[in-house]
Amino acid sequence: MLLCSLLLASCASNTARASSPASTTYIENKGSDTMVNFALAWAERYQALRPDVRISVTGGGSGTGIAALLNGTVDLANASRRIKDEEIATAQAKGIQPLEHVIARDAIAVIVNANNPVSELTLQQIADIYSGKITNWKELGGEDRPIVKLSRETNSGTHVYFLETVLRLGRSDDKTLFATNTLLLPSSEGIVAEVRHNPNAIGYDGLGYVPHDVKMIAIAKEAGGEYVLPSIETVNDKRYPIARDLYIYTNGEPTGIVKEYLDWILSAEAQEIVAKLGFVPVE
Amino acid sequence: MEKSLNWREFIITRAIKASGYSAIVFVLLIFFFLLRESLPTLTRVETSSLLGTRWYPIEDYFGILPLITGSLVVTLGAALIAIPFGIGTAVYISEIAPRWMREILKPLVELLGGLPSVVLGFLGILVVSPFLRVFLDLPTGLTAFTGSLLLGGIAVPTVVSVAEDALDSVPRAYREGAWALGATKWQTIWRVTLPAAKSGVLTAIMLGIGRAIGETMTVMMVTGNAPVLATTLGSLFSPVRTMTATIAAEMGEVATGSTHYHVLFFIGIVLFLISLIVNVIASSVVFRAKKRAERILS
Description:
The complex is a heterodimer. Chain A is an alpha/beta fold.
């Protein structure tokens, strides 16, 4: 992360020196670690287009970004979740009007080994697998094999999102937890590597990070519903159930260079970067 | 002239003394730091919850038992691998191997000791774990045993290096005496050389175990990190979560001063106490062995 910002800073200074503009405008951008990769890529590209603009991007989490916006230290706060009511209350007390912009979408694909005959599951079935109620693939119409459940570590935003959306099916009073024998792997690569060669494994990962040699599961919201494979189309028309919007918050209606940057973010060029980094572009 | 010599002597003695004491000071400082950061755990988390079997810190489940058993299972497995291999290799290098072989083997073993543990972790994910899954017909290759194998590999060079030095320092006269009495090479090694080098060999084992229990990167990559309470021998072949991996994986994202933060330090102190106990037992054994040897020799 730090390295990225340093690199960015150094190349920013290079472009600044090359064209030596009269005045440089700075944009501060902070927040979600999920979004930091494409936020950096955007900043890099935009600085190449506009040498008079310098954008500093840092991660730290959605909460950190919003807190910084409320303290007035950033222009743009990245958040992979909606702003909370308490945060809006704090903002109003400080005279800040957080304004929401959906700038990309994120979908989580459930993946299994390429040789696993199971290809369709309902959200409830996935929840039952991860909470330990279903332990063998034959209960789901597959081979007689134990299910090995893979998850990201608890500090990952994806882990929390998966817990809330899939295990608890979006119910906030639900206290279902991951079964203790769920493997918690520190990286996406770890999950993909295990799914790739282990026919017992099931895992989840950001849609764009899924390589071609593992199988994505088509998911139905409820039994009898339509089974939908994750793709850019199914995420954008909201048919795929494990997807979320990603936001940028500004203080009130953006003006000047911040507005220009936000408009550019929604352009085809910027959204292409989103797609390239494994997220779903907004239309 | 005399005076400046005294003066120099004085400074050198003090400098040596200070560096000697600094080791103690550092250990104490680390201990007090751990204690200060971990003590709030006892007031914030109930003891029954701390001794629970569920570790899920983001929802305030702080049961550390699965982590302790996880570390113990992996370390025990690693010790079972590292001790016979390590001491066997040390005996071979010091007692049996011809001189030229010895000169190749010893640096090679030491090179192995310098292998970064993250590299071993990659090896574990890409080679060892898939192999073990197929070979032992396990649901997954990311198990405590995979961790033990790799940690064993990490501990072997330490054990070999220290044990070999200990065997090497056994006076040649001991072996010659045994041979003169008609003992075979094996009898000499087993009944004379090894017992004579006992304290050094025990130190080697303890250092190896210490290396294994404190190792983080490799276990985090290959043991699966599932916080399951290990109760039977079968746990060796299922995923576990160790204390070190928990601290490493979670410390980076935790809010300073939160309950979770203090509990992670508490785990640190548990780890510290476990290695302290291992060391105390080892040195008391060594101490007793030394006294007995002195009695016999005098």
